[in-house]
Design a protein that fits this description.
255 residues; alpha/beta; TIM Barrel; 12-stranded mixed beta sheet; 12 strands; globular
């Protein structure tokens, strides 16, 4: 097993880090640069920054946010998502030090965008985020939603993940709307269904609340990386504590 990556996530709105439950009921979680500095010192393997309002507000990701956070993180890779819908957006982010981009609504609207990005910048720098919610009418039981969880698409999450792999995506980031912010644990059936359907690394996201949840994300969810927000922002655990716990359970982590 490859070492599991631990990824704090900065959900951004109005220049601040926020965290909600089921994509709503947002509360302030601090300054993004201060959080980035904290996570760099704490040993985060990567950091994600998602501009959660960009698509809903019909605008691009705020480049100034990305520049400030990337500059603070130094050699810790930064992934940015939200409002990315053309190659020029990706180019602008990479120019300010971003390592990877995450696309969601734009990829669903125009799947060839995934291929264009992968062919231009390499698959390793292209993540497709899949926001899903339970829907028994879907073959896998999970439906893709876009626009910050506001719009159902009628697309099956597992089928979409397979398509993204064929289009050239380098990683898949599935987030369960049902689990987001609940601290009740990753949606393991959702994460596992996607992980078992593709050969790409899958990043578990949405719902981590205990150290055991991180372990379950790897062992039961089959995730290659573990993304979390609330438990890190509100200092329930540090990245180091999560890594120490996983290592004690026999799960390889990066030192």
């Amino acid at each position: 097993m490859e070492p599991v990556r631990i990824i704090p996530c900065l959900d951004m709105k109005d220049g601040r880090v926020v965290k909600g439950v089921h994509f709503v009921e947002l509360r302030d979680a601090g300054d993004p640069v201060e959080n980035a500095a904290f996570y760099r010192e704490a040993g985060a393997d990567e950091v994600a920054m998602l501009d959660i309002a960009a698509t809903l507000e019909g605008r691009k990701t705020r480049i100034e946010w990305a520049r400030a956070v990337a500059g603070t993180l130094g050699d810790v890779p930064l992934t940015v998502g939200g409002g990315i819908n053309e190659l020029a957006d990706i180019e602008a982010l990479f120019e300010v030090g971003v390592g990877k981009v995450s696309m969601n609504s734009a990829a669903v609207a125009r799947p060839e965008f995934v291929s264009e990005a992968a062919e231009t910048y390499g698959s390793a720098r292209v993540i497709v985020a899949i926001d899903g919610r339970r829907n028994a009418a879907m073959p896998s039981g999970f439906e893709v939603v876009v626009s910050g969880g506001q719009k159902p698409t009628g697309r099956d999450c597992v089928e979409w993940a397979r398509e993204c792999e064929s289009l050239g995506a380098g990683e898949i980031l599935p987030t369960s709307m049902d689990g987001d912010g609940t601290l009740a644990g990753y949606d393991l059936p959702f994460t596992r269904a996607i992980a078992e359907s593709v050969s790409l690394p899958v990043i578990a996201s949405g719902g981590a609340g205990t150290l055991e949840h991180f372990y379950e994300g790897v062992i039961e969810g089959k995730a290659s990386a573990l993304l979390a927000a609330s438990v890190f922002h509100f200092r329930t655990f540090t990245v180091g504590e999560v890594k120490a716990y996983l290592a004690a359970q026999g799960v390889p982590v990066r030192s």
